Every structure is written in structure tokens, then in C-alpha cells.
Amino acid sequence: MKKTIFALLTLSILMSSCNKEVNTFSISKHNIGLLTDSTQVKDLETIFAKDSIVKKIAGDEFIGNVNDILIFEKGGKKLLELSPKEALDSTATISSIKVIDSRFKTETGISTLSTFGDIRAKHKISSIENTLKNVVILVNENNTFFTISKEELPGDLRFDMSKKIEAANIPDTAKIKYFMVGW
Question: What does pTM read for this prediction?
Fold first, then answer.
């Protein structure tokens, strides 16, 4: 009797652990699909075996510039841009990821198809930065920042980098250009 119960318990544990599959387009605080905050550059070939990896070599590795790694689907659609912590180091981990493909979604459902209104409704905004061509919205919950083109803003805010932009100045319908996750 004990052997039967033990066998059934073992079988049920094995069955339940085999059913857990990682969503390759989910974004959480410590992972983006199969990428984690401890993924090394050398692991990318295995993780993206069905996709294309393009490593840009800028030539400035000796002065500390990091070279981005681009991930494309086999059909040519750009998915992600990865920035390793160290250039030309296969054991370096990824420091930031630029999310380009709209299938990638945060735990709150935010993707590149979302709007500023979606961000405001689902996240606490910690700060808004005014840059030359974009507005960068930082949220603390998952080390993410969202970029919105200044073309989405009213005319008086588009050209003055010294103006402080508040959440009330950004229309809820402003579309996300891309967003980044930093580790």
C-alpha cells in the first residue's frame, strides 16, 4: 500500500513539473522569456537557436563601449536588442534589453502596442525624463522604462528640453515607441 501511494505521489509530482513551460514573450522582474538576469552571452546561441543573432562590433571595445546584440526571428522581424555588461566577453551577463516586438508583454500586460494611459493605469511612475527626441517614463516595480516619441506630445513640449514634463502633459493616447528592462 505504501509503495502504491509513493509511486502515485512521485508520478503526480513529475507530471506537474513537466507541464510548466516558460512563455517566451513574458516579461517579469528577473526574466524576459527564456532570458534571465544571470544569462551569459555564451548562452544566447542555445536560447535563441531558432532565431538569428547579430553581434555588432563597433571597434571601441578597449575604451569601454559595449556592443549590442540584436535578436531577429528567422523571417527577419527584430525582436530584442541586448546590451551585455562587458564587450566581447562571452561570460558577461546582459545588463539591459530593448524590447521591440509587440508580442513581449509585462506581467501587467504592457507591450509596445500599449499607450501612456495603460502605463499610468498599471504602474506607479517614478519619474519622467525629457530628452532630445523622446520622453522616458521610469517605473520602479520591474526595472523598466518606457520611451514615447515627443511627436506624441503637444507642440509646446516637443522642442524645449529644459521644460519639466509631468504625467498630466502626456496624452493617454500617446503610443510607446519601445521599452527597456535593466538588470
Answer: 0.79
Residue 90, C-beta contacts closer than 8 angstroms, at least 6 positions apart: 40, 41, 42
Alpha-carbon distance values, 162 to 77, 159, 177 (Å): 36, 9, 22
- Tell me whether residue 41 is in a domain: yes
Helices and strands of the chain, counted as H and E runs: 4, 12
Inside any domain, residue 174: yes
Mean pLDDT (10-residue bins), the chain, 183 residues: 48 48 84 92 94 78 69 93 89 93 94 96 94 92 89 89 92 95 87
- Cβ atoms 114, 104 nearer than 8 A: no
117 φ, ψ to 5°? -60, -40
Torsion angle (degrees, nearest 10) of CA 51, 141, 22, 85: 40
Per the CB < 8 A criterion, the answer to whether 99 and 120 are in contact is no
Distance CA 85, CA 126 (A): 25
Number of domains in the chain: 1
